[in-house]
Structure formats: C-alpha cells, structure tokens
Amino acid sequence: MTRNLRIGMGWDVHPFALGRPLIVGGVTIPHERGLLGHSDADVLCHALCDALLGAAALGDIGTHFPDSQPQYKDVSSLVLLKFVCRLIDQAGFGIVNVDMTVLAQKPKIAPYVTQMRRNLADVLGVEENAVSIKATTTEGLGFVGRVEGIAACAIALLYQTQGAAS
Ligand SMILES: Nc1ccn([C@@H]2O[C@H](COP(=O)(O)O)[C@@H](O)[C@H]2O)c(=O)n1
Ligand SMILES: C[C@@]1(CO)OP(=O)(O)OP(=O)(O)OC[C@H]1O
C-alpha cells in the first residue's frame, strides 16, 4: 500500500518564572520555578502542536490560539493539542509517529518521560510506541544552559487518509 506521507516540525521556548507550575508533556514536575506563558506554557505540547499543524500545512499554534484571547489564559496545552488533532483529522490526515526532544539544563526530564508519552499518546489517539520523547542539556551553553528557560522541538509524520483533499 502506498501512503501519501507528510512531515512537519515544531519548535518552542518558554522562560522560567517563579510562582508557576512546571508542566511538560502534561506532567507537573516538582521544581522551584515553572514556565511563563499565556497558557500553561507546556513547551513540549506547543512544539508538538506546531509539528502536527506544519505537516498538514495548517498554520501555527499562535494562529489557532492567539495569546490575545482570554479563553486561552492558563489553558492546559493538552486541550490545545486535542483541538489540533481534530483539525488535522478534519483535513484528512492521521498520525504515523511523533518524535520530540526537550532541551533543559534542569530539571531531569527522564523520570517523567513514561508518563509524558502516555499523556500525549492518549490525546493523539495513537499507541505509546508512536510517541518518542527525549531530553538533553545544552552542556551549560546558551539560555538553556543558563537555566533561563526550556526549549523543545518536535517532528511529526502524517499519512493522508482515504478520500482526503489534496
Ligand atoms: N533535562 C534533562 C537533560 C538530560 N536528561 C538525560 O540525561 C542524558 C544526558 O544528557 P546530556 O545533555 O548530558 O547529553 C540525556 O540523554 C537524557 O537521558 C534528562 O533526563 N533531562
Ligand atoms: C499557546 C498560546 C495561547 O495561550 O500562548 P503561550 O502559552 O504564550 O504559548 P506560545 O508558545 O507563545 O504559543 C501560542 C499562544 O498563542
């Protein structure tokens, strides 16, 4: 069977701030600071949203969820991700797999990866083995290395479902 495949990438950064929970991949990680944003600032979910939207050529997260809209204030990014999944489904695409990297000097992400993959697979409606999450420091270099924030990048592979518009 030949599948019409589409690839997309996403990238996001949020700064650390006091008095905020640290939420990454839908997991609240105990830490002295969280990430600042209009939403819950889940940097991993945002990168994934953009990868999915990019693969379907449907714009980006800010187009669909403007930070000028009070309805997205502190919203769970899992909710935004669910909405993005509906958009790509309506556009005639299904998910083959997604792969992500969290760039964080601190905290350690590895202990939370299993739960993150579970959360994201659940929202995407795919098996956990179609969701890969990795983490790296930047060896002390740059804004990540100075622990000023966390970055994430994601890549998504989509297939065109039967009867989808070109
Ligand atoms: N925030 C992070 C960063 C890294 N890890 C894990 O440590 C491994 C080594 O990271 P380096 O940046 O030193 O290469 C990495 O492969 C991850 O498994 C992590 O859990 N959280
Ligand atoms: C998600 C949105 C909307 O609440 O706000 P932020 O949490 O600031 O995140 P960003 O990565 O800047 O993406 C788009 C925004 O419109």
Automatic annotation (TrEMBL):
Species name: Desulfosoma caldarium
Alphabetical list of PROSITE patterns matching this protein: ISPF
Record site: Transition state stabilizer: H38, T137
CDD domains per UniProt: MECDP_synthase (cd00554)
Cited function: Involved in the biosynthesis of isopentenyl diphosphate (IPP) and dimethylallyl diphosphate (DMAPP), two major building blocks of isoprenoid compounds. Catalyzes the conversion of 4-diphosphocytidyl-2-C-methyl-D-erythritol 2-phosphate (CDP-ME2P) to 2-C-methyl-D-erythritol 2,4-cyclodiphosphate (ME-CPP) with a corresponding release of cytidine 5-monophosphate (CMP).
Family membership noted in the UniProt record: Belongs to the IspF family.
Cofactor(s) demanded: a divalent metal cation
Binding site for a divalent metal cation: D12, H14, H46
Record-annotated 2-C-methyl-D-erythritol 2,4-cyclodiphosphate synthase domain positions: 5-158
Subunit comment: Homotrimer.
Descriptive protein name: 2-C-methyl-D-erythritol 2,4-cyclodiphosphate synthase
E.C. number: 4.6.1.12
Keywords from the named record: Isoprene biosynthesis, Lyase, Metal-binding
Molecular-function GO term, any one: metal ion binding
Pathway membership, UniProt: Isoprenoid biosynthesis; isopentenyl diphosphate biosynthesis via DXP pathway; isopentenyl diphosphate from 1-deoxy-D-xylulose 5-phosphate: step 4/6
BP term (GO), one: terpenoid biosynthetic process
Cofactor: record remark: Binds 1 divalent metal cation per subunit.
Reactions catalysed according to its record: 4-CDP-2-C-methyl-D-erythritol 2-phosphate = 2-C-methyl-D-erythritol 2,4-cyclic diphosphate + CMP
Annotated 4-CDP-2-C-methyl-D-erythritol 2-phosphate binding sites: 12-14, 38-39, 60-62, 65-69, 136-139, 143, 146
